[in-house]
Amino acid sequence: MTETSYTLPLPELEGLHKEFYDHCKNHALHFQRCSDCQIWRHVPREMCPECGSWDWRWEASSGRGRVFTWTVVARPMHPAFVDACPYAPVVIEMEEGVRLLSEVADVAPADLKIDMEVTVHYDDVTNEVTLPKFKKL
Ligand SMILES: [Zn+2]
């Protein structure tokens, strides 16, 4: 997709969020993992919510997960989404245990199922931003 054709809001590329999206731009999904208690976490943050450690590293995800939940948006809450409705923001629970908000690109909202197995794919929406999205396995 070209820079000018993508009209939906984009993530702010700052700090740890930029690092997360830099991995996505390289078509790799990485999450933070605590160097002390080893739990994975997302969204990016400096301190471990489990043990309070400040030591962490980026670690590659398997890219596989399951549909945890979703909602169907019928009325846009932002003018940029008028043409996208109805659409389904989906919470994906990754094999590593972290959850992220995305979409299952090849499944209509009415056909989504809890625990549907999905795998990541990468949508290069602009020259700077690649969004991790999912497809049914
Ligand atoms: Zn920890």
Provide an overview of this structure.
With 137 residues, the protein is mainly beta. It has one domain (15-136). It contains 1 helix and 8 strands, in the order αββββββββ. The strands form 2 sheets. The protein has a 5-stranded antiparallel beta sheet. Strands 2-1-3 form a 3-stranded antiparallel beta sheet. A hairpin with a 5-residue loop joins β1 (30-34) and β2. The protein starts with 14 loop residues before the first helix and ends with a strand. The structure holds zinc ion. Zinc ion (ZN) binds at residues 34, 36-37, 39, 48, 50-51, 53.
Summarize the structure.
With 137 residues, the protein is mainly β. The chain is 8% helix and 31% strand.
Strand segment tally? 8
Low-confidence stretches: none
State the helical fraction. under 10%
Major sheet attributes: 5 strands, antiparallel
Helices and strands, with pairings:
Elements: H1 15-25, E1 30-34, E2 40-41, E3 56-60, E4 64-70, E5 90-94, E6 99-102, E7 117-124, E8 130-136
Antiparallel strand pairs: 1-2, 1-3, 4-5, 4-7, 5-6, 7-8
The structure holds zinc ion.
